[in-house]
Amino acid sequence: MKRKLKVAVTFNEAHPDYYKKQNRENPKSLDFIPYFEVDNLSPIEEYEILARKLTNFGFNAYALNIMDDIQKLIDDVKKNNPDVIFNFMEIYKENSRLEMNIVGLLEWLGVPYTGASPLALSNCQSKILAKRLLRSINIPTPRFMVVKKEISGLSHKLKFPLMIKPAYEDASVGIDNESIVRNNEQLKKRIEYVLYHFTQPVLIEEYIEGRELNIAVMGDLNPAALPISEIDFSEMPDHLYNIVSYQAKWDPHHEAYHKTIPICPAELPKKIEEKAKAIALKAFKFMGCRDYARIDMRLSKDNEIFVLEVNPNPDLTEGAGFMRSAEAAGYIYEQALAKIIEFAWERGQRNRISR
Hints:
Structural class: alpha+beta
Number of strands: 13
Radius of gyration: 21 Å
Order of helices and strands: EHHEHEHHHEEEHEEEEHHEHEEHH
CATH architecture of the largest domain: 2-Layer Sandwich
C-alpha cells in the first residue's frame, strides 16, 4: 500500500443511549475473586478507539455507526468513498441472520471490505449446515441431531451429556450452564426453552469433555494458523460446566467470566498442535473464510480433535480472542489490524483488474 488508505470502521449499534444508562461502575462486591479487570468500555467506544489507533498508525480512519439504517451506509460510501470498509456489522434490526445481507450490499456497492463473503457467513452461521459441510470433508465434529418443533417423546442414539444450542446464533448466544443436559427430562425442557426463546431449530450434540482450543487463522490467498490459544478450566467451580458460555464471554459480573482463563500459546504435544492447525486451515479454506477467522475445537481426553465452530469475522478486541494469538505470533495490535485491511485492499485491487 503506497498511499494512506481511507478506512471506514463500520458497525451497527442501534441504541447508543442504552450504554449511557448502564451502571458502568465496577462491582463493589462479588462472592468470588475476579481474575480480569472490567474496562467498562461500550462497544461504540471500542470501535472509536480502534479507528483512532488506525489513524495513529497511518490510516485515514473513522468510525461509522449505521444505527439500523442501511441508508447511512450507502450515503457514507457515496460521500466519503472509503478505500476499505472494516466490517464489524454483525446484526441488523435485531436479526443476526441479516449479517450476510449487509455484506451482500457491500458487494453491490463495490467497496473492498474486510472478512468473510456473504456465502461464507451464511454457511458458518447455520451450525447445522456448517457441521454437515465439515463432515463432508472428513473434519470431525461432535455427533448431533436437530429438533425443529416441540415433541412429546424423543428417541435418539446420542450419548449423554449433551450440549443444546440455538442453531443460528453466534457469540455463544443461548449457551449457558443449563445448556448441558444429562437425561431425557432435562433434554426435553431445554429444547422447549430454546424453541420458545429463540424461535429457531435446536442443535443437540454430544458434549466432548476435554480441552478447549481456539485456532486463529489469518490471511487471504495464503492463510496461516497462528499460535493456538487454550481456555483453561482448572479454576472453574464444580457447579459450572467447563464450557465457554455467553456469561463466560460477555458478563464480567459472572463467575464463569473470571474462571475461563486464556493461555496462549497452549502447551500441546507437537503432533497434536500440527494436526489442530492443519484441521483449522482446512476448515478455513473449505468454509470460504477470508482475512481472519477463529476455529474452536475440543481435544478429548483420548486426544481426538473435534471442531465445534468455524467463526468468520471473530471479535478483534485488543488482548482477547483472535488478537491473543496474533500477539503471540509477534504482531502488535495495530499491525494485525493493518494486515487485515491490507488483505481486503489487495483483494479489491485484484477484483478491479479481473473485471
